[in-house]
Design a protein that fits this description.
By secondary structure, this protein is mostly helical. The protein has two domains: about 30 residues; about 100 residues, Cytochrome Bc1 Complex, Chain D, domain 2. Helix content is about 55%, strand content about 0%. The chain contains seven helices and no strands.
Length: about 140
């Protein structure tokens, strides 16, 4: 009987030890639904040397501290966040539409701040143009 109780306590402790990793995995894979009207919204800015440069300027000032200089999610603030910053270079991320990236940047969630009042729509769109250059 005592051996069974010890086994159950050990199993419970083991489960509790892995709970933070399970919670992290859930947060990492938590869906971020985007309204349909934004999924199909086209970027009004065309990719050019000028729009890429403008977008890089916005990215360096507002995004790189969390998302990293190369978009890998490894910026200096990334370790202080409760949710992962995300890797912009992955096929999954790059597979999102420009409208989805625009909406997520504009509205934010959890650790990701809203840039609605901090950036113009043109600045957000130009950052999307720049983020498209961060492919593996």
């Amino acid at each position: 009987m005592m051996e069974t109780i010890k086994s159950r306590i050990a199993l419970a402790c083991l489960a509790l030890a892995f709970l933070p990793m399970a919670t992290f995995a859930q947060a990492k894979n938590k869906p971020w639904p985007v309204p349909a009207e934004f999924k199909s919204k086209a970027n009004p800015l065309k990719s050019s040397a000028s729009t890429i440069a403008d977008g890089k300027e916005v990215y360096d000032a507002k995004c790189a501290s969390c998302h990293g200089k190369k978009g890998l999610g490894d910026g200096p603030k990334a370790k202080t966040l409760d949710t992962p910053s995300g890797d912009f270079t992955t096929a999954a991320f790059q597979g999102e539409t420009d409208g989805e990236l625009f909406w997520k940047t504009k509205t934010g969630r959890e650790d990701m701040p809203s840039y609605k009042a901090k950036l113009t729509e043109e600045e957000i769109w130009s950052s999307v143009v720049y983020i498209r250059t961060l492919k593996k």
